[in-house]
Amino acid sequence: MNTDKKVLYTVSVLITAALLPLLLVSEQYIQIIAAALSAAAAVVVCFLIRKRSIYAIVKQEVLLLMAVTGALAVMLIYLSGLSFGFYRSPSPLSGLTLLVHVLPLVAIIVTSELIRAVLRAQSNRVADACSFLYCLLIELAAAGGVAGRMTHGRLMDLVALTLFPAITANLLYHYVSKRYGPYPNMVYRALMGLYAYIIPVLPAIPDSLMAFVLVVLPLAVLSFLRLLYEKKKKQAAARRGWWQYVAIGISLVLMISVVMLISCQFRFGALVIATESMTGEINKGDMVIYEAYDDQIIEKGQVLVFYKDRRLTVHRVDDITRINGETRYYTKGDANDSRDYGYITERDIEGVVHAKVAYVGYPSLWLRGLFKKGG
């Protein structure tokens, strides 16, 4: 192994490993520390690793395209406010916001894209992997890290609402950086990341819907760029096995489905069964898919997702009565000897269970148990 390659491997691994402790820093300071660390890493990378320029001649066109795409995306996000409403920004632009949020975010965007561009230009798999992981970790840090989110529910929100969009976004950034340089990514990321601090009002779009948009949009832009600027040879396409397309398609479908289901703000939601009260048809570790309740007719024997003592419960309707104009539902777990205490009404019902997926919830239960032991 020559000296240049040793330096490349060492720098790539060290700057990536240095980010891991950063994710545990308090959310109050993490953006500033991340910006400083990324700036230092950019100096090291640019100083120690030889730069190579292999960009396409259409890089100016791609820069304009990414700028227009980012501006249109922000415009469409705000147009959604006509349906969802608006609210006042919790971090309006001020001297403090500029110092604590805007400048650190700009520094993170610029330095991480410089690092990505230098490492991607080396055409080395280790450097590629480290640059992708580095940019993914620094984006999680910019979003607040994992400190204070070490509970099962908040960790699942972090995965669905932050990690998945960051993965697809970095697929786009990685592709653009290799072919067209760092500047298109810088402009696009600045437009998508800074509007929340610059514009005093924000659209009240649900978090899960926003995450879905942020997962799909980079994939759409990536596909458009490939169709617009890449000349695919038929022979090269033929050499790529059909199974690769199937694997990519399945992965995207699963990722998008999880984003849609995990926050339960769409028509269908998902819930992992954590107890044995329904053992038989629905077992501990299964995941149930339920349809959000919207005045559907509820019949005896159906399995409902409902709130009982402020906790989501999955039990079967054992009896239905109507007293003084109020419909009361009495529920029971299949494995329980007696009915649940009291009754529920329509306002307690979250959804109606339609299907289950066996065993897939066990990793989630294991994480939940791990956090309880740690706490």
Structure description:
This protein is 56% helix and 14% strand. It is of the alpha+beta class and 375 residues long. It folds into 2 domains: 3-262, no CATH class; 268-374, Umud Fragment, subunit A. The chain has a 6-stranded antiparallel β-sheet.
Defining key terms:
single chain, 375 residues, alpha+beta, Umud Fragment, subunit A, 2 domains, 6-stranded antiparallel β-sheet, two-stranded antiparallel ribbon, 8 strands, 14% strand, elongated
Oligomeric organization of the protein chains:
single chain
How much of the sequence lies in strands comes to: 5-15%
Mean pLDDT: 82
Global structural class: alpha+beta
Poorly predicted runs of 5 or more residues = 233-240
What is the strand tally? 8
Topology as H/E string?
HHHHEHHHHEHHHEEEEEEH
- Large-scale geometry: elongated
- The whole-angstrom Rg is 25 Å
Helix proportion of residues, in percent? 55-70%
Count up the domains.
2
Question: How many distinct helices?
Answer: 12
Question: What is the element layout, followed by pairings?
Answer:
Elements: H1 3-17, H2 30-48, H3 59-79, H4 81-84, E1 86-88, H5 95-120, H6 125-142, H7 152-180, H8 183-198, E2 201-203, H9 207-229, H10 234-239, H11 242-262, E3 268-272, E4 287-292, E5 303-308, E6 311-323, E7 326-332, E8 349-357, H12 362-374
Antiparallel strand pairs: 1-2, 3-4, 4-8, 5-6, 5-8, 6-7
